[in-house]
Design goal:
Largest sheet: 8 strands, parallel, barrel
Radius of gyration: 18 Å
Order of helices and strands: HEHEHEHEHEEEHEHEHEHH
Structural class: alpha/beta
Bound molecules: 6-hydroxyuridine-5'-phosphate
Distance between the termini: 25 Å
Strand order of the largest sheet: 1-2-3-4-5-8-9-10
Length: 259
């Protein structure tokens, strides 16, 4: 098991939480001192939810304005000081040498895991990313079925295997998550039937991370009953007037379902 998985499971036990905070705060670049305000707000939200979450996911909303080795460093230090695993969500989706440098920079900057898109394939695609991650105990989480309506156009299409069998693209990706040694898979909470199917394929051995709860319409109870291990939640927490309370409520709701 990767150090990332160990850290995540330890945190889940200690905080009794299955909520990964998606810290997608954003501000327009034209606003005075927007970088400083953005970082201050992000650090505050994080400090409010520490004991109610199991990890933090960072996306382009913070990376682009703040910079990986600049402003983001103080947030990364905060998360690490709180013992919270940090997931880089830039959905790596390129050829080998680009993916390799992106993953090396993300891991060197302090991220514990990253999310990648299996559409890019293994050879010349994600093989190197898994190699870089394994060497340093970091995690790779694969997108298996996204939470938005158009996900069915790619992840939900029917594909013909080399032996002529027809399956859904996401079923193939769930199988690949097993054979490639992924540390997690993303399946939208908006698709509980897909969560259930993927759970059967990965045999409960690879945790399912489900975004799409709350604003996107996914249900906590349907997702967790179907096999979700961790909910990824953004706006319902950081847009709330009281992020601490919002995170605590989602955590308790999940704990009621999985107890
Ligand atoms: P929110 O709870 O505000 O809808 O945020 C969901 C988070 O999960 C966002 O960071 C988004 O980029 C991410 N996400 C998603 O919504 N659906 C996916 O299929 C995969 C994601 O990473």
């Amino acid at each position: 098991m990767s150090l990332f998985r160990e850290k995540l499971e330890k945190c889940a036990r200690e905080n009794e939480s299955r909520v990964v905070l998606a810290l997608d705060l954003s501000l327009p670049a034209g606003e005075k001192n927007f970088k400083r305000k953005l970082l201050k707000r992000a650090r505050w939200v994080l400090s409010e939810v520490i004991e109610n979450v199991v990890g933090v996911k960072v996306n382009f909303q913070l990376l682009l304005p703040l910079g990986l080795f600049d402003g983001l460093q103080s947030l990364i230090r905060d998360a690490s000081g709180y013992g919270l695993p940090l997931i880089a969500d830039f959905k790596l989706n390129d050829v080998e040498h680009t993916n390799e440098w992106a993953s090396r920079h993300l891991f060197d900057a302090g991220f514990d895991a990253l999310i990648a898109n299996p559409f890019v394939g293994w050879r010349g695609g994600l093989e190197t990313v898994f190699g870089v991650a394994k060497k340093s105990g970091k995690g790779v989480i694969l997108l298996v079925y996204m939470s938005h309506p158009g996900a069915n156009e790619g992840y939900g299409q029917r594909v013909v295997g080399e032996d002529g069998t027809i399956s859904f693209q996401y079923e193939v990706f769930a199988e690949r998550a097993k054979s490639w040694g992924a540390d997690g898979v993303v399946v939208g909470a908006t698709q509980p039937k897909v969560v259930e199917r993927v759970y059967r394929i990965v045999g409960g051995k690879i945790p399912i991370f489900s975004p799409g709860i709350g604003v996107q319409g996914g249900s906590v109870s349907e997702a967790f009953k179907a096999g979700t291990a961790y909910a990824i939640v953004g706006r319902s927490i950081y847009e709330s007037e009281d992020p601490r309370k919002a995170a605590a409520e989602i955590k308790e709701k999940i704990n009621e379902i999985i107890k």
